[in-house]
Structures are given as C-alpha cells and as structure tokens.
Amino acid sequence: MQTLRLEAMDGDDELSRLRVVGEEGFGSKKYVEKVIDGSFTSDCIKYDMIHYLLYFRMLQRAEDDRTLSKHFKYEAANMAKKIDLLEASKQKLLGESLGSCSIEELQQTEDQLEQSLSNIRARKNQLYKEKIELLKEKERILAEENSMLCEKCGVQPRPELTHRREIVPYSPSSPISDVETELFIGPPERGTTRLLRRS
Predict the structure, then answer these.
(1) What single DSSP character describes residue 163?
(2) How confident is the model at residue 14 (pLDDT cuts 50, 70, 90)?
(3) Residue 77 exposure: Cα atoms within 13 Å on the Cβ side
(4) Is residue 30, in this structure, part of any structural domain at all?
(5) In terms of residue numbers, what domain contains 62?
(6) What phi and psi, each to the nearest 5 degrees, are found at residue 176?
(7) pTM higher than 0.90
(8) How many Cβ atoms are within 10 Å of 53's Cβ, its own excluded?
(9) Is 103 part of a structural domain of the chain?
(10) What does the pLDDT read at residue 23?
C-alpha cells in the first residue's frame, strides 16, 4: 500500500497549497505536483486527484486505527490473564481456595512462604543491627560530651557513666533477670548515692 502525505504549501489558491509526498508513479509527488502546478490543464482532474488522495489517506488512517485497536485488545487480554494469575497466587499464599490444589502445589506454596518468612526475618535482623549501631554511636557522642562537661566543671567523670555496656538485641527466648538500679542525687562533688537492692 502506498504511503502518501498531504503538506501545506504557501500560495493563494487551495490547489497550489497542497502537495503530496509518496512513491513514484500515479499519486506520487512528481505526478501530483504536475497536476497541481498546471501541467495538466483540466481543473476537474486536479479536484479528482485531490479527492482521491484525501480518501486514500482516510482509508490508511482507518487501517492504522484497526491495527492499533487489535493491538490494544491483545494487550488487555494478556493483562487480564496476568491479573487472574496474581489473584490466584495471592489467595493461595493467604491460605484460601486450597481445595483444588494438589500436593505438589501445596508443597510449592509452603516453600514460598518459608522463603518469604526467612527474608522477612533477615531484613528485620538487619534493621535491628543498624539501630543498635546508631544507639552505640549516640552513646559514644554522649560520653564524649559528658567528659567535656566534667572537665569544664573540674570534676572527675563517674566510672559507671563512662563505662560502655554492650547492647544485646532483644530475643523472646532470652531469660529475664533482675537488675540492680543505682540512683544518683545531688551535685557531683557532694552527691549521695542510694543503691536499690533486690528485695
């Protein structure tokens, strides 16, 4: 099928403002320019040629529209199939609609859940470690600030305040033990210490 394109040209009359770009031969650029420029003296031929070209272009656009429509319908059908598969997979992972599943499908679903749970736990542990490192850095900065303040005040920092204790991540299986708490009251040089012992 020929590919033709109408272009606007500078000129006074409507015929001289139209030009067609296409293949050589009937309806080609050279042929139509001869028609429009007056090589063929019949105005009837000029008008017939322009009407033909406009109709031809309209048919070409209609064909392009049908092709695009078929393509979009195909893409929409594929998208609908993918959505159905994702919905079915989601229901299986939620433990729903398992009546039609075979043993192999159930085992595959179980393996997927175990892998997902492992990934979730690994990510959670990573976030815990990052949080612990952040807290350790804050503790170090506070200890340095405390030492600077003590030097300005001319007092010795308390050993228990400068001693860094290791932060251990919480685990549900960790044993619970009693902790002795020391409370400091008053100025540093004249403070009194009260030890709260386990009763």
Answers:
(1) P
(2) very low
(3) 6
(4) yes
(5) 5-90
(6) -95, 125
(7) no
(8) 20
(9) no
(10) 42
CA dist 199 and 183 (Å) reads: 16
| End-to-end Cα, the chain, rounded Å | 99
Ramachandran angles phi, psi of 75, nearest 5°: -65, -40
List the structure tokens of 11. 């000129």
Does residue 80 lie in a domain region? yes
pLDDT at res. 135 = 96
- The alpha carbon torsion through 103, 104, 109, 112 (nearest 10 deg) reads 140
How many Å is the maximal CA-CA distance in the chain? 121
Q: For residue 20, how many other CB atoms are within 10 A of its CB? A: 25
The answer to the question of residue 57 being in a domain is yes
Q: Which residues contact 129 (CB under 8 A, 6 or more apart)?
A: 169
Q: Could you give the number of structural domains in the chain?
A: 1
Measure the CA–CA gap between 23 and 102, rounded to whole angstroms. Answer: 62
